Amino acid sequence: MNARVVGAGVGVLLLSAGVALGTAAAAWFALGRLMAWPPSPEHEALAVGGMALVMVLWSLLLWASVRWWAARRQRAAERKAQVAELTQQPVLTLDGLGHVDWANAAFSQRTDRHGPHVLGRDLAQVLGLPECEARTELETAVAHGQALALSCQGSDLHGNPLNWQLEMQPLRDAKARWLGATVVAMDGSALVEATARFEALQAEETRTHQALMDSLDAERQRAEAEREAWSLERTRWNAEQDALAHARAEAEAHGDRLHEELNTLHEGLEAAQTGTWQVDLDTHRVALDTGAMRLVGAASSVLLSRPFAHWAEWLSPDDWAMARAQFAPLLAGTATHRDAVVRLRAPGAEEGQALWIKAAVVAYGADGQAERIAGTVQRVGDAVQGLQQQWQLLRDGEALHGAAVFRLDEHSLVLQASPQFFHLLGRPAQGGEMGWGQFVHQVDDDGHRHALQNALDDALAEDAKGWDLTLPLRTALGAPLWVQCRAEPRAQSAGERAWLGVLQAVPEPARIDVAAPDPAPEPPVRDPLDDRAAAERRLGRDLGRTGRLLAPAWLNLPTQVRQADSADERRAAARRVAMLARSLGAACLADGLQAWDGAEPELPEALKAEIDAVVDAFQMA
């Protein structure tokens, strides 16, 4: 019997005895109270205590009864479950001789053996075991009354194979004598199926584990290959960085050599021989002075031919093609000045001598077309050629620095720039040239425009001065492009200067959002022509040579302005005169007229007064 059920029963008996004793005590106290009237306080207290004790004991009795009833119910359920489990499995019992004396319905249904086919027979015969090691082991255990757990294969009444899982427990009396045995013959086919499923699951687990390990190995190999590729890429990137650093160092060295060449340019140009020439496009009259005749090997100072036709005889074919393309805008009216470095080939001149040819339109017709072109020709050494080579080298090296290069002439105020320069501005190349006013107008902010113009004015007024500014440029996208504009002065020839500079995109300067007082009014734009002393220093460098070159052109300027039919034509003529005055300097003309040795050495006084009035008017403009 279950220990919990026995304990519950003993507890119920003890509580019953306690309840009986408590009830008797309560009755005795109650009887004593009735006999002693009026009751004393001691009797009353005892009666109340007895009644409380009876209530507690009755409560304990009720609790113990409930626990005992619950324990019995649990024991009954367990026995019922055991019986149900035994009834679902084949069960047999053996007598003292080892014969079957009872078999349940599950065994009969399993083996299809009933009654005479089971009772009184050997266990091996009933299970349908063939002659095998398992049958011998079973018979030995039955003969000696031993416990046994055995897996074997038998058959039913019709010879169908059956798998058995036997568990035999011997039954003995108090003196350990053999009384029989209980045999539980479980169906071994379920165990075989479970074993097969277990083996299948184990094989699947093995395959999954192997596939996972193969995947990990492949992933590890792929990671190693990527690491090697990354290492090779990093090595290649380091090599590219080294090559870029080397190229940058070479570009800086070329820049240093450029500065050295530019510094020696002035000395080379001072030693150059100079001559002047002019062409009348209406009469095709070419006039050369003595120096030009000597340099190009011309036999006469006055030649009649198509414009520039004699240059084809004096220059090599390659240089003539280059010069023709360079000076074509002068004839087309799209440019006011050009220059080129060429070599001679004519007999009588030094073979291979380099010449620096300059040309400028000095007279226009009523239709606005060029009528007269004048210029200079100079024999130069390696300094000018080095300048051209270094200029091309600087343009070729701009890709390494990501910057655009430009050159600004002092008199013409025309920018000669590389394609990268126009790419940064978002404008067409325009033949590689751009006016200074157009560049200033490209700046997006008025304050920065004033700063750029003032920087140029200061550079024009003082020698050996450049500028370094950060400017916002207008773009087609709306947002300004911030660039750094740096320029340094370089001497071209005696009394002439130019600025070489770079234009490089930079990040937008950080803005400081703090409360600031009202901005001060912007200073007015200072025109260098208003400062007469600065204008005289700037315009007086070319006294003599430029006046000898351009005096005939100035003779026609008052006539052009005076003969204009409309206000628009007068303004157009005034603009051409102003451009020529700014390019070549107005203050040098009066002295230049005295030194002119052309066709009209003596000028009428009225014409001289008119020319002086025009010069004074443009100086005051």
Structural class label: alpha+beta
Coarse shape: elongated
CATH topology of the largest domain: Beta-Lactamase
Give the oligomeric state. single chain
Task: Give the class-level CATH name of the largest domain.
Answer: Alpha Beta
What amount of the residues lies in strands?
Answer: 15-25%
The biggest beta sheet is recorded as: 6 strands, antiparallel
Mean of residue pLDDT values: 69
Spatial gap, N to C terminus: 134 Å
Total strand count, please? 17
Percent of residues in helical segments? 40-55%
- Radius of gyration over C-alpha positions, nearest whole angstrom: 62 Å
The number of helices is: 19
Question: CATH H-level name of the largest domain... which superfamily?
Answer: PAS domain
Question: Uncertain spans, ≥5 residues at pLDDT below 50?
Answer: 397-401, 512-517, 525-558, 581-604
Report on the structure:
By secondary structure, the protein is an alpha+beta fold. It folds into five domains: 85 residues; 151 residues, PAS domain (Beta-Lactamase, 2-Layer Sandwich); 110 residues, 2-Layer Sandwich (Beta-Lactamase); 111 residues, PAS domain (Beta-Lactamase, 2-Layer Sandwich); 84 residues, no CATH class. It contains 19 helices and 17 strands. A six-stranded antiparallel beta sheet has the order 8-7-6-11-10-9, sandwiched between helices. A six-stranded antiparallel beta sheet has the order 14-13-12-17-16-15, with helices on both faces. The longest helix is centred in the middle third of the chain and has 83 residues. The radius of gyration is 62 Å and the shape is elongated. About 11% of the residues have low confidence.
